[in-house]
Design brief:
globular, 12 helices, mainly alpha
Length: 257
């Protein structure tokens, strides 16, 4: 996996362009009695709820409670910065912060991240899901090829790739475009049931329908676990960075007082 180097620590970069005067106004008007409600709403959002791009979030039984409490604690320290906004604006503000942080994470920390993020958004998929499939399928190697002739980042069979509009599956752009289109197709076929979607990506749509869910194939069951773990890991990383960003904003307010 190629390492992506950055010029400045992430914590410094993500604050760029954030309206500090607005943070200051929010902090001055914050009310302590609203912190508990904010913690619960924001921690839930940060751990995989569908945000501006929509998508098919991770069921809560796949998210450990310990990281949830850790993120909640981080949000508690910074929640006062936006506690005085009307509820609709609170969520909108956090959505903007979260999505810009997510985009920056994919741009700087994930191989082929800008491509994965853009194609996921275009197809109303969570970028974390697409990245997890890429990682599980190829470990982000664009020239990967299986014994069955599955090719490229998302290990598509030539027939599937052509069906989804790709002529050269070794081209990362074509591969990810075709792979996300295929995930979108499966999303529609299985009404957003992510477990079936992931299983079908590995074992085929027909097998998932035949068995009424995850086929009893050890390969598919292991594949599902790997994708889920990577998806949850990426989600946790984004959540932690959003929490850091809120803490940095809160610290800036305290310093400016």
């Amino acid at each position: 996996m190629n390492e992506i180097k950055t010029k400045r620590p992430f914590q410094q970069r993500v604050v760029d362009g954030f309206d500090r005067s607005r943070i200051h106004r929010y902090a001055l008007k914050s009310k302590a009695r609203r912190l508990d409600g904010l913690k619960k709403r924001y921690a839930t959002l940060l751990l995989g709820a569908s945000l501006a791009v929509g998508g098919i979030g991770i069921p809560m039984n796949f998210v450990e409670l310990r990281p949830l409490r850790e993120v909640t604690g981080g949000v508690e320290a910074a929640a006062g910065t936006i506690a005085s906004l009307p509820p609709a604006h609170e969520q909108q503000e956090l959505t903007l912060i979260t999505e810009s942080t997510r985009e920056a994470f994919f741009r700087t920390e994930i191989p082929f991240g800008p491509l994965i993020y853009a194609e996921a958004v275009k197809n109303d998929l969570r970028p974390e899901l697409v990245a997890a499939v890429v990682k599980t399928e190829s470990e982000f190697k664009p020239t990967a090829r299986s014994q069955a002739n599955a090719q490229g980042l998302m290990q598509l069979m030539p027939r599937t790739g052509k069906w989804m509009g790709a002529d050269n599956l070794m081209n990362p752009v074509e591969n990810v475009q075709a792979g996300t289109k295929y995930l979108k197709y499966l999303t529609e076929r299985f009404d957003g049931d992510e477990t079936k979607i992931i299983a079908a990506y590995n074992a085929g749509e027909g097998n998932v329908r035949k068995f009424g869910g995850v086929p009893p194939f050890r390969e598919t069951q292991n594949y599902l676990k790997k994708v889920r773990k990577s998806e949850a890991d990426f989600t946790q990383q984004v959540s932690g960075l959003v929490s850091e960003r809120l803490e940095v904003a809160d610290a800036s307010v305290r310093i400016s007082r």
